[in-house]
Amino acid sequence: MELIRGLHNLTAEHRGSVATIGNFDGVHRGHQAILDQLRDRAAALGRPVTVVIFEPQPREYFAGDQAPPRLTRLRDKVRLLAEYGAERVVCLPFNEALRSLTAHQFIDRVLIGGLGVRHLVVGDDFRFGCDRVGDFALLREVGEARGFAVEHTRTFALDDERVSSSRVRTLLASGNFAQARRMLGRPYRLAGRVVRDRQLGRTIGVPTANLPLLPGPMALRGVYAVLTRLADGREFTGVANIGWRPTVGTPRPVLEVHLFDFDGDLYGQRISVVPCARLRGELTFDGLEALKRQIHRDQARARDYFRDIALPGDASPGAADDATWHSFLASAPLAAMPANSESPAAGAADNDDG
What we know:
Blueprint: E1 2-5, E2 18-21, H1 29-45, E3 49-55, H2 58-63, H3 74-83, E4 88-93, H4 96-99, H5 103-114, E5 119-122, H6 136-146, E6 149-152, E7 157-158, E8 161-162, H7 165-173, H8 177-184, E9 190-193, H9 200-203, E10 209-212, E11 222-229, E12 235-243, E13 254-259, E14 270-280, H10 288-307, H11 322-331
């Protein structure tokens, strides 16, 4: 898979694209259906599957901290797009120069001048250009005149419900990881490199691996029973706090995870963390002793959660295949908790479905 950053890095060999454009936040099953659709067209024309994304995402540029929480950071999004069939990802910086392009300028400079697009697959509600005046009808009109085809994406639904990034965010915020997993086509996970922190966890007997998170809105916030996969493939159950650690404070949001029955050094390693059940929201405690008592209660509840999961043949997480293990996690108690007042975005919805 080839990642191309900016229009200036597109060359003659990139022209003749079969492309789609969007945020692709979460790379959920609706996005995967678009990639399937694109692969069919690309195969027929003998061209690679090309996905155009923006960084930052347009709503982040315009709304800042009021934008919807990200489901995937750029690194993970590119990896997932490649996993589901993208052969080229063109990442365009969304800045004032791009924002100020008229709809016709966007078509001329990006689609024709940059990509030399031959076939474009976008939603029939796709809007682009300054003040979002460009639409699907304009693309079809210009395409007929300039020699490229435009096809609308197929809607993907589960149980008569349209799969969208906004719906996945709401499910995650309410703790419904089972349905979020169905819409994503995989367990939702957070990944990153373990960094050194103040090591307060060690002082209270609960060492944690800390992953810094992007500043801004978060899809998850609170305390969770989690499954953590290490770089060497080993998996450990545990408990994690995602957020701002209000009792001790932090300059940026962090995911800190305590692995059950693990003894080792994880600094500098990349790990991935799958939230399996939401235990509670973030709370402020009157000192470290009160925090320590609550952490022990959280650990006990998380251990009870995993103890209730019976895999075939008493298999451990590492012994079971990934799909089997996560399907059991999704069906266990707490995996489909209803939205509540502690959820960071319970009941929230937005139109950022690209």
